[in-house]
Backbone:
């Protein structure tokens, strides 16, 4: 497990991370979400002993990262700032890491194959594209076959094939009982891979919950309905306690009633419906709405407009 307890980091009078406490458990892919400047990278760096917390601590498997004798065999880490020496070939970079962590040499070929870099093994890192460099970083994280993976923006620069390969890899590692923590700005991708979410903003914990629970608790679900007489239908629905917004096409977005209940209200009133459908907020919409509700939200953050359709 990864345990963060009261993690706090200040730079001068500015608190970047304030009192973060959460646990990342094995057997799941945990998404670590937050807007730019939320404190995600600082939190990850404190977990890896690269930044010293002012208060609190982080433990991986019960130990501080800096106390691990062969860290690559315990934690596979990828940070955005992780850049190998440009003059090294990919295979030499990985062999050096393997030797320094007492990892069998055959693992180098295995991880190069796992990330799709076998054909570029003897190319110098300085000639790699952004996506190839990211694959090499993932290979380094996997090198020690660690029980814990801690990845910061791992899909950055990857093409569609690389993203799919990574998604399958993370799900497979979690299924093996490993602990997987992934930070990403790509909400659509996160919704496909994460089981659990830790959401922060301005260094404060906003949510620590399962994916579906997060959407149900913080997302906006509604029933979309179109009718020849929307005014009459709206009046009947309001009398049943529903709230509504009007879509750009004249449809009603009804909250507080299920689709079956809306249908029953219309039938009782003798009103015809042209369309009736249920809609659940996406992870992206739910995340943005939750962040926008926080005090002192950033200038330019999205506000939900009445009648905006939210689809998945």
Residues:
């Amino acid at each position: 497990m990864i345990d963060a307890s009261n993690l706090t980091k200040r730079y001068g009078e500015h608190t970047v991370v304030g009192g973060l406490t959460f646990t990342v458990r094995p057997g799941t892919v945990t998404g670590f979400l937050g807007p730019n400047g939320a404190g995600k990278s600082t939190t990850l760096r404190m977990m890896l002993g690269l930044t010293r917390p002012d208060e609190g601590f982080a433990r991986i498997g019960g130990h501080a990262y800096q106390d691990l004798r062969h860290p690559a065999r315990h934690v596979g880490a990828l940070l955005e700032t992780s850049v190998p020496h440009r003059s090294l070939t990919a295979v030499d970079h990985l062999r050096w890491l393997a030797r320094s962590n007492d990892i069998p040499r055959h693992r180098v070929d295995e991880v190069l194959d796992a990330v799709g870099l076998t054909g570029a093994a003897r190319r110098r890192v300085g000639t790699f594209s952004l996506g190839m460099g990211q694959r090499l970083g993932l290979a380094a994280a996997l090198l020690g076959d660690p029980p814990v993976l801690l990845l910061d923006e791992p899909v950055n620069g990857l093409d569609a094939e690389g993203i799919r390969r990574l998604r399958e890899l993370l799900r497979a590692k979690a299924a093996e009982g490993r602990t997987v923590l992934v930070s990403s700005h790509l909400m659509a991708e996160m919704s496909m891979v994460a089981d659990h979410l830790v959401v922060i903003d301005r260094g404060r914990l906003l949510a620590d919950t399962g994916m579906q629970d997060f959407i149900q608790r913080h997302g906006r679900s509604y029933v979309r309905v179109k009718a020849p007489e929307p005014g009459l239908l709206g009046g009947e629905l309001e009398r049943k306690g529903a709230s509504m917004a009007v879509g750009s096409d004249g449809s009603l977005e009804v909250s507080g009633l299920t689709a079956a209940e809306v249908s029953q209200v219309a039938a009782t009133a003798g009103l015809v419906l042209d369309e009736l459908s249920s809609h659940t907020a996406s992870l992206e919409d739910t995340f943005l709405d939750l962040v926008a509700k926080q005090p002192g939200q950033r200038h330019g953050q999205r506000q939900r407009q009445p009648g905006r359709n939210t689809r998945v």
